[in-house]
Amino acid sequence: MSRGGEAAGPDLPDLQAEMTADEFRRHGAAALELAARYLERLDEVPPLAQVEPGRLVSALPPGPPDEGEDLGAILADFERLVVPSTTHWNHPRFFAYFNSSAAGAGVLGELLAATLNVNAMLWRTGPAATELEYVVCRWLAELVGLPPHFDGHINDTASTSTLVALAAAREQAYPEARELGLSGAPALRVYGSTQAHSAVEKAVMTLGMGRQGYRAVACDAEFRMDPAALQAAISEDLEAGFRPCAVVATAGTTATTSVDPIPEVEAIAHRHGLWLHVDAAHGGAAAILPERRWVLAGADRAESVVINPHKWLFTPIDCSVLLTSRPEVLRRAFSLVPEYLTTPEPDREEGMGARNLMDFGVALGRRMRALKLWMVLRYFGRQGLEARLRQHLAMAEWLRTQIEQEPGWELSAPVPLATLCFRHLVPGGGEAELERHNQEVLRLVNADGDVFISHAVLEGRFVLRATIGGLRTTPADVVRLWSALQEGAVAAG
Ligand SMILES: Cc1ncc(COP(=O)(O)O)c(C=O)c1O
To answer: What pLDDT does residue 414 have?
Structure first.
């Protein structure tokens, strides 16, 4: 095909706009070597960055370079300056928060996704990205035992997935909001337990329902939502003129991984016509194990379920799968198509169709997050994932036994999954003394640098918290965690 006729085009200096394929190969090999070396030597550095705030800022020039620099020098600075100021989430002894460890297959998935550099806002701008996302979400739903009518898409984080789910809940409860906003609307109310993640309340706030639009429901002694308290809260709110909108049940709460009684919560939510969102950001992964399927029992009747493969499924951050049985409501809540984004492909109400991912959330542009998840799920397979999850649960069980059997230590909550809340006791010490002592244990353990743990507050009690979910964590690492805790307790006096 001849294009451009005889025209010479603008007279511009010769510019090599991008590195050549050979340069890319050479630098790429160096970057991969650096990544492999980093992962290989992780064990030799502290998991928690042992630096003061401002360390990297003071090591970097205040302004950008005038002239382009050699990539070799940039990679060297990455290793020399950036890595030492990093907290290593891939570290085998990262036991804090809910850890997020990246499998090599997922890291390579990120590389290839960046190479394709697809923006899957529309099906036509990313057919493969859109369809791969559809497929991996289906795979994940199947792996955790959710039925085929669940449709999914991928967001950055569970906070976003929850925001999207609650926007759909608001759309269902008060569709007028789309045109009118919430001024003049009935006071909407969303319910979660006192142990629900703050992302739920933040989503309610962001969606214009105000913090008063969120009501925290009491838990039982094992930190699970009390269904009777939920029912009472809804009845009281109806009486007071609120319009209940959604219930969020958590499968794997942030502090203790307690699992709300989803079947009972579901019955109450649906009796009142409310949207049920299940926050299984961390705990959902456990349902891959047949013996832990109970974690998501009842979630098959939810309107939406969030599971973060970037938490306990070895996929590099960010990757949060939002599964929904009501994709049409999500679409009603979010679809707003300017003329320039209209497309000729037919979109179906159900199934894949030529869906446009921009219709399911706030973001227009979407990166190809599905690729890394696809690669991780294929690399491990169901059996490989099961084997790793079982190992984590067994290591947590070992640590639980140590804590229970060692005089002077107390388990502060049940251990339904692989996260433990516990504290070291001080003979005759009151609550304030216990908190001071355990704060000191926490500080000493993390300052020593062999392991990284975090803390939680359970009904006003300050407790230490360790989660076991890292891909590279071995039984020897958990033994080192237990030693570090015991040493920290002695040093704290
Ligand atoms: C139960 C639960 N839900 C939601 C979140 C928020 O996750 P994200 O960082 O993906 O927004 C967390 C974070 O740890 C969590 O524990």
So the answer is: 98
Count other C-beta atoms under 10 Å from residue 104's C-beta. Answer: 16
Query: In this model, does residue 386 exceed pLDDT 90?
Result: yes
Judge if the beta carbon of residue 306 lies within 6 A of ligand 1.
Answer: no
Residue 419 in contact with ligand 1 by CB distance below 6 A: no
The secondary structure of the chain in percent helix, strand, coil, rounded to multiples of 5, reads 45, 15, 40
Identify which of 99, 154, 164, 282 to mutate to test ligand 1's pocket (most ligand atoms within 8 A of the CB).
Answer: 282
Average pLDDT, the chain: 95
- Evaluate if residue 349 carries a pLDDT over 70: no
pLDDT digits (tens, 9 = 90+) for 70-128: 999 999 999 999 999 999 999 999 999 998 999 999 999 999 999 999 999 999 999 99
159 CB within 6 A, ligand 1:
yes
Residue 112's Cβ-side half-sphere holds a number of Cα atoms within 13 Å equal to: 15
Q: How far is the CA of 341 from the centre of ligand 1 (A)?
A: 32
| Torsion sign (Cα): 386, 280, 259, 313 | positive
Which 8-state DSSP code applies to residue 150?
-
- Summarised one tens digit per residue, pLDDT across range 468-484 is 999 999 999 999 999 99
Q: Does 199 contact ligand 1 (Cβ within 6 A)?
A: yes
Q: What is the whole-number distance in angstroms between the Cα of residue 299 and the centre of ligand 1?
A: 18
Share of the chain above pLDDT 70, in %: 98
d(CA 390, CA 388): 5
Structure tokens at 202: 């933040």
Which among 202, 279, 322 is the best mutation to test ligand 1's pocket, defined by most ligand atoms within 8 Å of the CB? 279
Classify residue 54 as exposed, middle or buried by CB count within 10 Å of its CB (0-12, 13-18, 19+): exposed
Residue to mutate (ligand 1; options 100, 157, 197; most atoms within 8 A of CB): 197
**Pick from 336, 339, 302, 340: nearest CA to 322:** 302
Closest CA to 143 of 293, 351, 301, 333: 293
- Residue minimizing CA distance to atom 16 of ligand 1: 254
Domains contained in the chain, CATH given: 119-366 (3.40.640.10)
